[in-house]
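Collaborator request, handled under Task 6.
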Amino acid sequence: MYIKKHENKSLGKEIRSYHSLNRLVTAFILGMSIYVGSQLIGIFLTTEAYGPIIEGGNSTKLLLTDLLFLCLSLSIIIFLTRGKITQYGLCRTIGELKWGSIIGIGLIIGSIASILIILTGANGNPSLKSLSIREKILLVWFLASIAEEIFVRGLLQGYLNPLQGTTISIGKQELSYPVIFSTLFFGIIHLPLIFFGADLITVCVIFAMTITLGFFAASLRENHQSVLPSIGIHITTNIGGTMVGPLVYALVIGSI
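Structure tokens returned to the collaborator:
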């Protein structure tokens, strides 16, 4: 009898592990399909090799890519939930939110990243250099933050919600599979910047920044069951990276 119970327990554990791995792999394939597909469509429509189908250059490509992230993610969420989108974090937050801390952490993450890029003499993100202040506000601060959070924290982390009880111990911290996946995936999709003109130092700094941001955003998403806090910290991180960090650096060295 003891052997049968032991065997049943082991079998159940193997089945759960199989289903967890299967869901993680599916989430990764789904996420990469959306990411790569959106990037390729954006490049194809705005490329100048044979004459762009849609005029506008880099800002138009960013706009199209983020809109594709947003539209595809929302469409798949609606399909998977049959319209009950609150299951994927598209709802009000649960529990008390400390917006002051969220804004402060976001500004610090973004500012540190931009200051590091300046101090190391790296070239920075080339896709941002051609943008006007208005385009940075609309495309980077708001559209990119909202689209990427609904994509990663909404669709992908929402899809992995059944694995929320499965955790890995890192030091004294217990991290769930959805948080770990969401954090790593968000960092990985920023690595291809190396193919779009960013130098290695810039890519390394941005990867570290997105991993850090991804962890906080994923944890907020899990704790409050909503993408609103993660969108908030993403927006403030982008503000810190594109405005606050360079401004602080300029003030410190006395160029202002």
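The cover message to the collaborator said: "The chain has one domain: 2-253. The CA atoms of residues 36 and 189 lie 9 Å apart. Please let us know whether this matches your experimental observations."
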